[in-house]
């Protein structure tokens, strides 16, 4: 009886000791992350951001910093809605793969199959658009962009805006970051689905994954918990430059929260939207015509954190910056969203991932 009690006591001591150790470890990690973020987002009276870190789908860190609205003196909260910029491209890529899964297209199809008059469209494939190897001129680098920035543009008008520009290189010759290719993809989604890009993403992705606080961006709609975007000038902070969201379109016009982005990550992991075969296409490295491998899949950069493979992407649009890192081998997801393009979450998000990775060994 005494031996039995002693064993029970020892088991309880070991259990509580491990619990206390885990809590101490989490507290230690939290302090390190707090300190890291404070270096860039420490001023409570400036625009700020929201950072979240999760492992195995469980939130281990979720905090807001600074102001969501300077004029109204509104503090940032973790459920704030941000423009996510180029993170939009992952949704566009998955939408294309969903259409492929339904048998409505192939990533090997030439662009000319859907846009008959596209220059060299028989040589540029959907795969080239997805991997940024098409050579199409990036419209964000065109001087004439300022002339249409405030205009409501139909997708075909956006495609016509850049399609006759000289190509930067032959399809598949090199990898170069490009927004135009993802605008073409958005237009193809509309042509094949018979629906607008906005509706397609909402019905087929946001609604299916429970992303109830994610939207196609608008400066006119009332969006609950919207974080307002800012620039920093010598004279102080100013409201973000206005742009018509039909311009970035399917390359950068979505809004979301850190919680919804975690739902998105989990939906991809659980094959809720795509089967395993289609999902793998988004997360594998491809080769150029020369046989050289490059580190971009379909909508994600494929890099590494402390030598462990990751998937990551950032975003930048007037008044906002965003960054996410996902480490599949450890199921660690880190995301940072900022409402001033003067505060970048990129390196902070990467460093948070490194801290968590070191503590999860």
Automatic annotation (TrEMBL):
<feature type="domain" description="Beta-lactamase-related">
    <location>
        <begin position="34"/>
        <end position="342"/>
    </location>
</feature>
<keyword id="KW-0732">Signal</keyword>
<protein>
    <submittedName>
        <fullName>Serine hydrolase</fullName>
    </submittedName>
</protein>
<feature type="signal peptide">
    <location>
        <begin position="1"/>
        <end position="24"/>
    </location>
</feature>
<dbReference type="InterPro" id="IPR050491">
    <property type="entry name" value="AmpC-like"/>
</dbReference>
<dbReference type="InterPro" id="IPR001466">
    <property type="entry name" value="Beta-lactam-related"/>
</dbReference>
<dbReference type="Pfam" id="PF00144">
    <property type="entry name" value="Beta-lactamase"/>
</dbReference>
<dbReference type="GO" id="GO:0016787">
    <property type="term" value="F:hydrolase activity"/>
</dbReference>
<keyword id="KW-0378">Hydrolase</keyword>
<dbReference type="InterPro" id="IPR012338">
    <property type="entry name" value="Beta-lactam/transpept-like"/>
</dbReference>
